[in-house]
Specification:
The complex is a heterodimer of chains A (about 300) and B (about 80). With about 300 residues, chain A is α/β, with parallel strands linked by helices. Chain A has helices spanning about 25-35, 45-50, 70-85, 105-115, 130-135, 140-145, 150-155, 185-195, 230-235, 255-260; strands at about 10-15, 35-40, 55-60, 90-95, 120-125, 145-150, 165-170, 205-210, 220-225, 240-245. Chain A starts with 9 loop residues before the first strand and ends in a 34-residue tail after the last helix. Chain B has a domain at about 30-80. Classes of the chains: A alpha/beta (about 300), B mainly alpha (about 80). Bound molecules: S-adenosylmethionine.
Chain lengths: ~300, ~80
């Protein structure tokens, strides 16, 4: 298929969280086929790598003026992409993580495309939600998951269910409209803490998690008590996500239905008398089986 | 009622044979965390009748250089959210 036959004028692709190794084949192929690639990802070596895929890569990082309101920055990102798509389609907007996960330029591009009759294709990427679930070993299948943007949570006073795990993005910059990566406003952080304390006890352990942005780095996972959240966030990395585990597990309300779902023979296993009576061991860790009373 | 502007800004099916599907996202509330002043929602059929939108689209179509077109697209973005 030649470039002019591609079924879109603008492709919006996600680049993943951990740099080049997390870029999907699908995203890569899309970027190869586009005439221009506009990149919004400051990951180590990412823009350089994209230059090996496309001769026309524009790094949008220079548009991220420190101290400016975030909305005009997003509008500038979107304007460059849409303007290029009108002149020389197809073009690609390649963004950090997943392209519709808390990514306002994507929304602006989609809206303007409707007005300007441009066709848009979206290509998913690995999001920070994906990496967070791996870093913390959480499966939302067990207790569900609620996810909010920190400022949105406060502005709308959204209710929280404290028996469902909760992910809160953009917590370190809560209630700050400006692009100030290093700044932390203690008063704003205290507002977030106070709001969460309406739903959770102060001694509830929450997690500040930053997924690795590079294969050579480990994720940062720090536990803090909710009562000390603001102090924890003051020192946190810019890209930290707040994870709040459930306070308790919701009781089963429909016992009959739950019973129907049980796997056959799912009764507690009885210890087989006699057979293989040797206690299974694990080097350096307690033996498997009932604990022996201390002498 | 404001008459339909006499230029092709390509949303209504009668203007363009193949409009892009609006999708869910464009129908969501237009403000981002209440930070961008705007309308309560984005309904393309009403939106394209706004004189500010019409002016932006005319400027985009008429822009002689890349820089002027990008500036005109930015004007449109200001009305989008
Ligand atoms: C503007 S959003 C962009 C999210 C991105 N589009 C994605 O798919 O994850 C930025 C927020 O995502 C979360 N985030 C991004 N990178 C992260 C990382 N490496 N570790 C943990 N959270 C991250 C944080 O909550 C941060 O405030």
């Amino acid at each position: 298929m030649t470039r002019t036959e591609l079924p879109y004028d603008i492709a919006i692709v996600g680049l993943g969280i951990a740099g080049v190794p997390q870029i999907t084949h699908e995203a890569e192929e899309t970027m190869r086929r586009c005439r221009h690639v506009f990149v919004a990802d400051t990951g180590n070596g990412v823009a350089e790598y994209l230059r090996t895929l496309s001769p026309h890569v524009v790094d949008l990082a220079s548009e991220k003026e420190t101290g400016a309101h975030r909305i005009p920055i997003y509008r500038r990102f979107a304007s460059h992409v849409v303007s290029a798509a009108l002149a020389e389609p197809p073009v690609c907007f390649a963004t950090y993580g997943h392209p519709t996960m808390f990514c306002y330029p994507t929304t602006l591009i989609q809206r303007s495309a409707v007005v300007l009759d441009l066709k848009v294709a979206l290509v998913p990427g690995v999001s920070s939600l994906d990496t967070l679930l791996c870093d913390l070993g959480v499966d939302p299948g067990s207790d569900g998951l609620q996810m909010y943007e920190a400022t949105d949570l406060l502005v709308r006073r959204r209710p929280l269910q404290n028996d469902v795990a909760c992910v809160i993005t953009q917590a370190p910059m809560v209630a700050d409209a400006l692009n100030r990566p290093a700044a932390r406003d203690v008063d704003n952080l205290a507002l977030l803490q106070a709001y969460l304390l309406k739903f959770y006890p102060a001694d509830h352990e929450v997690v500040l998690a930053t997924s690795s942005p590079h294969p050579l780095l480990e994720p940062l996972v720090q536990q803090v008590r909710l009562g000390s959240l603001a102090a924890g966030l003051v020192q946190s990395a810019q890209l930290t996500t707040l994870f709040i585990p459930p306070v308790a597990r919701r009781a089963i309300a429909d016992a009959q239905l739950a019973q129907r779902m049980r796997v056959a023979g799912a009764e507690p296993v009885q210890a087989a008398a006699g057979a293989g009576s040797a206690v299974p061991t694990r080097p350096g860790r307690p033996n498997i089986g009932p604990q022996q009373p201390a002498n | 009622m404001t008459p339909t502007p006499p230029i092709d800004i390509g949303v209504s099916p009668s203007v363009s044979p193949d409009p892009p599907a609006p999708g869910v996202v464009v129908r969501m509330p237009i403000t981002f965390l209440g930070m961008a002043p705007g309308r309560p929602g984005f309904e393309p059929e009403e939106f394209i009748r706004d004189p500010a939108v019409v002016r932006s689209v005319q400027a985009i179509r008429a822009a002689p250089t890349d820089a002027e077109r990008t500036a005109a697209v930015y004007q449109l973005m200001e009305t989008l959210g």
